[in-house]
Write a structure and sequence with these properties.
The structure holds two protein chains of two kinds. By secondary structure, chain A is of the alpha+beta class. Chain A has seven helices and seven strands; from the N terminus they run H-H-E-H-E-E-H-E-E-H-H-E-E-H. Chain A has a single domain, classed as Heat Shock Protein 90. Chain A is globular. By secondary structure, chain B is an alpha/beta fold. Chain B has one domain: Response regulator (Rossmann fold). Chain B is globular and about 35 Å long. The relative contact order of chain B is 0.18. Classes of the chains: A alpha+beta, B alpha/beta.
C-alpha cells in the first residue's frame, strides 16, 4: 500500500490546500454571475477562463495522484521533449487567465537547447499549474510591472525551464517554509500569494514523479520557480 | 460614500468595485496593506472593507497600523474574508474592541446583495 507520507501529493495536507484554493474560482464565478442582477454586464469570457483554470488545477492534481500511485519512474513514460515547445504551449494555456488578471506573458526561449528527458504531459501540467498560481498572485503584490516570463536557459546542472517575475519572494526560503506550513496554514506561501498556493505544490509533486523538483531560479535579472531538466543524450547521438 | 477596498484578488476586487459603483459609492482599490495605508492617507475613506488574507503583511497588521492614526480611529471597518468567523471565536475582543471591526463577513456566504445591504447600513446618516 502506498504511504502518503512518502508521496506528498497523496497527503491530506495538499488536499486541504487544493480545497481551499478551489474556493476562489467558485467564489469569483458566483459573484460575477450575481452582478447581472444589479444590471451590470457580466463578462462570460472571464467566467469561462476562471472555470477552465479550476478544471485544469483539478486535472493536474489528479495526474499527480495517478503518477504517485503508479509509484515508479518505470511506469512514467519519459521521452525526449522540446522545452521550447512545452513553454510555448504552456503560455498558450495560460493566456486567457493572464488576460483577466492583467498579467503580461512573455516567452524567453531564444537559443537551442535540444530535447530534454521528461514526460511532456506531466511537465506541461506542472508548468501550467505553477503559472496559474503565479498569475493569480502577481497582481496582489501591487507591483507596477505585472509580467510573467516563461523562460528556458542553460545552467551547469542542466536546462532550466521556469516561470519568472520581478518578485524577490520567489526564493528558496519561501518554498522551504511553505512546504513546512502546507496543511497547517491557510497561506503557506504568504510571501508569494494570498491564497493557499496549491498550484505551486501540485506542480512540485508532478515534477517529483519525474524525479525532478520545483526549485528557485534566476533568469534575465528576474526571480522564478522552475525545474532543472537533463538533456536527452540518446537523441543527441543521432 | 468613499470606500477603501483592500482585496488581493483582482477578479473579486473588480466585481466588488462594480457592485459598489452601481450603488453610487466611490471605490479606492488596493491589493496590499501598505498600498491601503497610503491610499487612506491620501483619500480619507468613510469605510474600509478589508480581506485578512493578504500577501506579505496580513489584514490584521493593516488594521493595527490603520487604527494607530488618530484620524482613522472612528472610520468603520468591515472585514470581508475567506477566513471563517469561527477561526476568530476566541479573538472577538481583539477584532471588535482593539481593532474596531464593525462587521465580519465570510466571503463564500456573503452574496453581493447582502454585502451591499451591510455597506449601506454603515453609510453616515445626513445631519
Amino acid at each position: 500500500m502506498t504511504q502518503a507520507a512518502d508521496k506528498p501529493i497523496l497527503s491530506q495536507d495538499l488536499l486541504l490546500g487544493l480545497a481551499e484554493q478551489l474556493k476562489l474560482p467558485l467564489l469569483q464565478i458566483a459573484r460575477r454571475s450575481e452582478l447581472a442582477s444589479f444590471g451590470q454586464e457580466v463578462d462570460n469570457a472571464a467566467i469561462q477562463a476562471t472555470a477552465d483554470s479550476a478544471l485544469r488545477l483539478i486535472d493536474s492534481y489528479l495526474l499527480g495522484v495517478r503518477l504517485a500511485e503508479e509509484g515508479s519512474q518505470q511506469s512514467l513514460a519519459l521521452e525526449p521533449v522540446s522545452v521550447s515547445s512545452v513553454l510555448y504551449d504552456t503560455a498558450h494555456e495560460l493566456s486567457s487567465l493572464a488576460k483577466f488578471y492583467g498579467v503580461h506573458l512573455e516567452l524567453s526561449i531564444a537559443g537551442k537547447y535540444g530535447p530534454v528527458t521528461a514526460n511532456k504531459q506531466a511537465l506541461q501540467a506542472a508548468l501550467t499549474s505553477l503559472g496559474m498560481s503565479l498569475i493569480e498572485a502577481l497582481p496582489a503584490l501591487d507591483s507596477k510591472d505585472v509580467t510573467l516570463q516563461l523562460g528556458a536557459h542553460r545552467s551547469r546542472y542542466g536546462i532550466v525551464a521556469g516561470l519568472y517575475a520581478d518578485t524577490p519572494s520567489l526564493n528558496a526560503d519561501t518554498l522551504r517554509r511553505g512546504a513546512e506550513l502546507l496543511g497547517k496554514s491557510r497561506q503557506p506561501l504568504v510571501g508569494i500569494t494570498h491564497s493557499s498556493g496549491a498550484g505551486i505544490f501540485v506542480a512540485d509533486t508532478i515534477l517529483q514523479a519525474m524525479q525532478l523538483r520545483l526549485a528557485p531560479t534566476r533568469h534575465n535579472k528576474l526571480y522564478g520557480l522552475g525545474a532543472v531538466l537533463q538533456p536527452n543524450k540518446q537523441l543527441q547521438l543521432v | 460614500m468613499k470606500i477603501l477596498l483592500l482585496e488581493p484578488d483582482k477578479i473579486l476586487a473588480d466585481t466588488y468595485r462594480q457592485l459598489l459603483l452601481s450603488a453610487d459609492h466611490k471605490v479606492i482599490m488596493c491589493a496590499t496593506a501598505q498600498a491601503a495605508i497610503f491610499a487612506a492617507d491620501e483619500l480619507s475613506p468613510d469605510l474600509v472593507i478589508a480581506e485578512l488574507q493578504l500577501t506579505s503583511h496580513s489584514g490584521i497588521e493593516f488594521l493595527y497600523e490603520f487604527r494607530s492614526y488618530d484620524d482613522w480611529t472612528n472610520v468603520p471597518v468591515m472585514v470581508l474574508t475567506n477566513v471563517p468567523a469561527g477561526e476568530f471565536a476566541g479573538s472577538w475582543d481583539l477584532l471588535r474592541d482593539e481593532l474596531g471591526v464593525t462587521a465580519y463577513h465570510y466571503k463564500p456566504l456573503t452574496s453581493l446583495r447582502s454585502l451591499l445591504r451591510a455597506v449601506n447600513a454603515l453609510a453616515p446618516t445626513p445631519a
